[in-house]
Q: What sequence folds into this?
């Protein structure tokens, strides 16, 4: 589904060229939930931005859905991907449903069908009563669910998530993780998630790459666990 072949990326920092991604080889399979963990500054977000075509590698090749990402294919391939951020990236001057409809404004399609689909997706993410709400009246978890509904309206084959639960408390995080898992199971969407939170990675991912100083230090397969909410008390007293 996603393949990185000898990918390197340099940035100019204070007038000096710095190679931040160093000769990475990685294959992520269809329907997989793949994690990227590592210390701050190790290159996780940069790898995600390379995969979703935001930035170009200096060396190596990237393949999405079996096709090489280049100037000619980028537009078409990137249309089948979507991104979720820590900060939600919603437009606060639009209400909930208009935020979800935003990606349809630049695509063809019937307005009525789009509105029906947006409503369906808002129900799917548990926000059926919030269509007309303004963004600032929502909790963090609700905002992230709006962002997820907006992501789904384009039927992405791949969803990239950069620290999607970092701004949320444990209960909200659990709800978002459950939702991502449901999306993966229901729509067969491939998910790549960056998180510094090991419990998030362990709850969600089939495999995870440990990134160290721009390199893949190791790739580990994980047993999927049932995602269940844990109370503060259980979390404090449990040994996991
Ligand atoms: N646009 C840019 N210009 C210059 N340097 C950059 C740019 N983007 C990233 N870097 C540098 O690349 C390195 C990797 O950054 P990246 O954001 O990928 O790390 P990260 O693993 O996502 O960190 P964090 O966990 O803090 O989000 C850092 O040293 C960063 O300063
Ligand atoms: Mg980052």
A:
């Amino acid at each position: 589904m996603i393949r990185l072949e000898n990918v390197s990326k340099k940035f100019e920092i204070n007038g000096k060229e710095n190679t931040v991604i160093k000769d990475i080889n990685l294959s992520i399979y269809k329907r997989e939930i793949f994690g990227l963990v590592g210390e701050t500054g190790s290159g996780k977000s940069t790898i995600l931005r390379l995969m979703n075509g935001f930035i170009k590698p200096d060396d190596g090749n990237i393949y999405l859905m079996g096709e090489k990402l280049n100037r000619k294919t980028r537009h078409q391939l990137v249309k089948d991907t979507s991104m979720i951020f820590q900060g939600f990236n919603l437009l606060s001057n639009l209400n909930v449903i208009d935020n979800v409809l935003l990606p349809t404004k630049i695509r063809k399609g019937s307005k009525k069908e789009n509105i029906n689909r947006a409503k369906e997706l808002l129900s799917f993410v548990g926000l059926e009563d919030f269509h007309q709400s303004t963004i600032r009246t929502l909790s963090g978890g609700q905002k992230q669910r709006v962002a997820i509904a907006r992501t789904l309206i384009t039927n992405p084959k791949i969803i990239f998530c950069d620290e999607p639960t970092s701004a949320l408390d444990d209960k909200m995080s659990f709800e978002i993780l459950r939702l991502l898992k449901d999306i993966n199971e229901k729509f067969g969407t491939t998910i790549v998630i960056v998180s510094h939170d090991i419990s998030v990675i362990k709850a969600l991912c089939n495999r995870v790459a440990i990134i160290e100083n721009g390199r893949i230090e190791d790739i580990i397969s994980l047993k999927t666990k049932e995602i269940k909410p844990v109370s503060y008390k259980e979390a404090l007293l449990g040994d996991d």
Notes: Strands lie at 2-13, 16-28, 33-38, 59-64, 67-68, 81-85, 158-162, 190-194, 207-212, 215-221. The chain has two domains: 29-55+71-80+156-240, 90-155. The chain is about 30% helix and 30% strand.
